[in-house]
Amino acid sequence: MFLFSEKNSPRWLVFVIDMLIVAVSIFSAYLLRFNFSIPQEEYWFRKLPLAIICVVSVRAILSYIGKTYAGIVRYTSAADAQRIFLVSLTGTLILSLINFISHYYVHKFFIPFSILIIDFITTVFVMTSGRLMVKELHAQLINTSSLRRSVIIYGTEHYALISKTALDRDTGSRYKVLAFIDDNQSKGSRKLGGIPVYDLAQLDTLLKKNEVVHVIISTPEIAPSKKQYIAEICLKHNTRVLNVPAPSSWINGELSFKQIRTINIDDLLERDTIKLDKEKIQIKLENKVVLITGAAGSIGSELVRQIILFHPAKLILLDIAETQLYDLELDLQENYHFINYEIILGDIRNRERIESLFEQYRPQVVFHAAAYKHVPMLENNPSEAIITNIQGTINMADMASKYCVTEFVMISTDKAVNPTGIMGASKRIAEIYIQSLNAITHTHFITTRFGNVLGSNGSVIPRFKSQIEKGGPITLTHPEITRYFMTIPEACQLVIEAGAMGKGGEIFIFDMGQSIKILDLAHKMITLAKLKVDKDIKIVYTGLRPGEKLYEELLNKEEHTLPTHHPRIMIAKVREYEFSQVSQEIKYLVTLAYKGNSTEVVRKMKTIVPEYVSNNSPYEELDKINS
C-alpha cells in the first residue's frame, strides 16, 4: 500500500522491487531463449546462478548511481522513463563487455547475446510500465471521478498535452480534462489521448451543459483577440480562465500546475504584437548615448528595458524618485546584466543641474518621460504643473538644442487634445514649445501622444485591483466614462518606433483601438476575481473629478492625420507657432507660476491654448468671462 498512499514510498522498497524485476527478467530471458527448457547438461545451465548474481549486481550498482529508484513512483514522468532506459542500456553494454572478456579467456560467452537483448527489453518494459501502472492506479484511487472537477484545454498541439500531463501529475489539483478545444475542428469527431476534441465554436455549449471550473489556454502564442473571445465566453458562465506561461519560465523545463496562472484584465486588453522596424531603430540607438528622464517611472523604466535590446553605448537614467531609481538599478544588474548606465538622481526643473548633465555625458538621443500627470492633483496645484511639465520640458529641450542632441522624443498625452484640465493644458503647451523650437534648431524634436497605459502609476486598473482585494467598494467617477488603453510595453515600442521614423516637428498619435467603458472594465475585473457585482463588491459613483473628461480624444476639431509606414502610428497635423512669439508667452507663464497666483496662471494658459475649456473646475469662471 506504500505505492498507493499519499506518503512517498521508501526508496529502499522501490530499489528492492526493481532488483526483483531484474532477477525475474534475466531468468525469464533464459527461459525464452531455450523455449522454457534449459538442458541441464548445457554450459549455460551451470552458469545460470552466477549469471543472475552478476546481472543483478551490475544493475544494482548502476541503479544506485543513476538514482532510478529515487523518483516518486506516482509522479513518474518521461524523464524517469528515460533514466531507466539509459541505466538499463549501460548495464547491458557492461554485461556485453564481460561477455567478450569471458570469450577471450574461456572461449565461451558468459551469457548469450540473445539473452542480454531479451533481458534489456524486458527490464525496461516492466520497470517503466510498472511505474506507469502504479501512477494510473494511484490517480484513480485518490482522484475518484465523483470528486474530480472538470477543465477544458484550449489547443491540441504539444503544449495541450503537456498541460494535461501537469494536471495528471498534480494529484492535489483533482482535475479531469473534459475536452480539448481546437480552432479548426472540421474533420468530424476525433479524440486526443482518449479525450474528445471540439471546435472553438462549441465552447459556449460545453460550458452551458457541463460544470467546468477552468478553461486552460495552453498555446503561449495565442492571438490576443482569440484570448479575449475565449475569456468573454468563460466570464459569461463564471468559469475561470487560466494561462500556460511561456516555456522559458518552466522549472527545469517541466510545467507544473501551480505555474498555470489565472488570466488577468491586462491579458484581456492586449492587442496583436507590434511589428517594429528594428533595423531603423538599431541605426538610431546602437552605440549611442541615450538620456531618459523619468527613467524610474512605469513608462521610463519600460523604455530602459526595451532600449537596452538595441545596444546603446550608455544609458543616462534621470529621475527624482530615489527608491524607484534604486529598484531600477537592481533590475538592470540582476535581471538584464546590463552595466553601461549611469543613475542620476536629479530634477528636470533645476536648469543648472540639467546643463551639467548634458555637458558631462553629451547624450545623442533623449526620451523625455518625466512629468506630473495626476489630473485632480494638478488641478489644485497649477503652478507646480507649469514648473514641472513646462519649465522642466523647456530646460530639457533648450539643453538638447545647445548640446546638439540628434533626436528628442517627448512623451505627451491624449489629455493635451481639447484640454479640460491643468494637466492636459500644461502638456499641450510643452508640445507647442518643442514643436516651434524644432524649426530653428538642428535637433529633431518629436512628440508622441497616447492615452492611458495599463498598470502605470496612478492608473485605474491597479486602483481597482487594490479595492477588490480589500473587499470593495470600487469607486467610479461616472457610469458613462470611457478611456483608451494600451499596455506599457506596447506604448513604449510605439514611442521608440516613432522616435526612429521622426524627422522633427511631428506629433505622432498612436492607434489606441476602441475606447473602453470603465464600468465594463470594473465588471470584468470583479468577475475575474470570482466575485459578483453588488453582492460581493459594490460599485460607488463619486462624480467627475476636477479637470476630468467623460471621453478622451486623440485629435481636436482643427486637426487631422497623415499616415506613416506603420499602421499603428499617424502624424497629427496641428497649428504651428512662431518660436520667437510663443516662447515669450510661455516664459511669462512660467514667471506667473513661480509667483503662485493660480487664477492668473490658468488665465494665461487659456490665452496660449484657446481650446482649453475647464470642466468640473473652479476655473470654469474664466471661460464665462472670455466667452
Give an overview of the whole structure:
It is a single chain. With 627 residues, this protein is of the alpha/beta class. The protein has three domains: 2-142, no CATH class; 149-263, NAD(P)-binding Rossmann-like Domain (Rossmann fold, 3-Layer(aba) Sandwich); 278-454 and 486-515 and 560-608, Rossmann fold (3-Layer(aba) Sandwich), CATH 3.40.50.720. It contains 21 helices and 22 strands. The chain has a nine-stranded mixed beta sheet with strand order 10-9-8-11-12-13-18-22-21, sandwiched between helices.
What is the element layout, followed by pairings?
Blueprint: H1 11-33, H2 43-66, H3 78-106, H4 113-142, E1 149-154, H5 158-169, E2 175-182, E3 190-192, E4 195-199, H6 203-209, E5 212-217, H7 224-236, E6 240-243, E7 261-262, H8 265-268, H9 278-285, E8 289-293, H10 298-307, E9 314-319, H11 322-334, E10 341-345, H12 351-361, E11 365-368, H13 375-379, H14 382-402, E12 407-411, H15 422-438, E13 444-449, E14 452-454, H16 460-469, E15 474-476, E16 482-483, E17 485-487, H17 488-501, E18 507-510, E19 516-517, H18 518-528, E20 539-541, E21 560-563, E22 569-573, H19 579-595, H20 598-608, H21 620-626
Parallel strand pairs: 1-2, 1-5, 2-4, 5-6, 8-9, 8-11, 9-10, 11-12, 12-13, 13-18, 14-17, 15-20
Antiparallel strand pairs: 3-4, 6-7, 16-19, 18-22, 21-22
